[in-house]
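Q: I'm building a small set of examples for a reading group on sequence design. Run inverse folding on the following structure and report the sequence directly after it, with nothing in between.
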């Protein structure tokens, strides 16, 4: 990450770059990363590694990685903020994400894209979830918000929450040779020697200041929910995974008071859907995904503003969602499309309206009742 940007970008990049607190109000970021192992990596070496990663990535769908990918409710819209596409209007988050890559060369971008296409953090979290003593955010600054909101969600919704694990997603995984090796070897079935060599090269390349030694938000700009599965060799629990990158991005643009709560409430909405079997619908393709995503948005708004949920001010949720939903306006034909900005805001408005109009503010609707009301409202939300 560039440290010599003019104006506000300096402040923002310092938040992530560690070592120097930009002002007294920001928590110390000391100890986030070390520069000890940095080696010189030339642009030619970086480009060659990008090409190698792309050529070695299996595409036949038979890998463990492909099987898992088909089951996960990834909130792809988040990564849409950092992956350059033809439809990328300027928004505070996209501008921030672009500023974090201001010192990347074309080869750096190729490498980061090639590495992300292996979904290393997502697959590592699914196959080898590490939630003991978890911290959230680069310096753990979101740990309290995330863990308390998760506990509150478990009490609020009427599903059995006991098996749901809350797992962080941290880019430092990319600088761990053993974890990179097992990703290539186990998740992608690449031969032993190739996996070892790739892991070594990736670790060396990521271990540079411009990639924040793995902590660059480009690698962990995501959050997702998983329903749990048993596959040969693995018993994968139900889980919600929260990436540091997305938390840092919204913190940098001024939303640290609601970011973790809002994203987690949406992901937990997917867990309610898994538990209640709410994925069944006559809709198909992008319309089916849009339905479950908008429903998760409504679940989130209901919890966030309910007196027995997070009891947050609706105005503040709206402000956050205005910015958050700007990430999802591209790719209408994408099977992962979450709904337009307007549709998502309508889904949130509707969730809040159920709170506001309830005769008994202390009553929490059963999740299936809430989902039934949503189903009736859906045509109006997407109209
Ligand atoms: Zn979602």
């Amino acid at each position: 990450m560039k440290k010599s940007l003019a104006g506000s970008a300096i402040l923002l990049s310092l938040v992530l770059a560690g070592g120097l607190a930009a002002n007294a109000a920001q928590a110390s970021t000391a100890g986030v990363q070390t520069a000890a192992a940095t080696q010189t990596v030339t642009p030619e070496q970086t480009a060659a590694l990008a090409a190698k990663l792309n050529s070695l990535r299996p595409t036949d769908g038979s890998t463990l990685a492909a099987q898992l990918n088909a089951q996960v409710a990834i909130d792809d819209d988040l990564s849409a903020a950092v992956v350059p596409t033809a439809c990328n209007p300027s928004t505070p988050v996209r501008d921030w994400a672009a500023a974090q890559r201001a010192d990347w060369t074309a080869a750096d971008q190729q490498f980061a894209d090639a590495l992300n296409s292996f979904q290393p953090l997502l697959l590592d979290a699914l196959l080898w979830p590490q939630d003991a003593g978890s911290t959230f955010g680069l310096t753990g600054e979101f740990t309290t918000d995330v863990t308390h909101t998760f506990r509150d969600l478990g009490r609020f919704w009427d599903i059995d929450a006991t098996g749901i694990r809350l797992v962080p997603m941290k880019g430092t995984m990319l600088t761990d040779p053993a974890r990179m090796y097992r990703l290539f070897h186990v998740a992608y079935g690449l031969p032993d020697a190739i996996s070892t060599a790739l892991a070594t090269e990736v670790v060396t390349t990521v271990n540079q200041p411009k990639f924040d030694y793995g902590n660059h938000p480009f690698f962990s700009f995501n959050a997702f929910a998983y329903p749990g599965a048993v596959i040969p060799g693995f018993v994968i629990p139900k889980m919600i995974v929260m990436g540091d990158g997305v938390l840092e991005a919204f913190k940098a643009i001024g939303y640290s008071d609601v970011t973790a709560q809002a994203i987690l409430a949406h992901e937990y909405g997917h867990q309610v859907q898994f538990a209640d079997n709410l994925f069944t619908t006559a809709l198909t393709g992008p319309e089916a995904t849009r339905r479950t995503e908008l429903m998760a948005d409504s679940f989130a708004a209901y919890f966030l503003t309910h007196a027995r949920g997070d009891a947050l001010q609706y105005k503040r949720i709206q402000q956050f969602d205005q910015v958050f939903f700007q990430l999802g306006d591209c790719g209408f034909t994408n099977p992962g499309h979450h709904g337009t900005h307007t549709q998502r805001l309508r889904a949130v408005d509707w969730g809040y309206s159920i709170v506001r109009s309830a005769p008994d503010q202390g009553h929490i609707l059963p999740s299936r009742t809430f989902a039934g009301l949503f189903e009736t409202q859906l045509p109006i939300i997407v109209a």
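Residues 2-35 have pLDDT under 50 and may be disordered.
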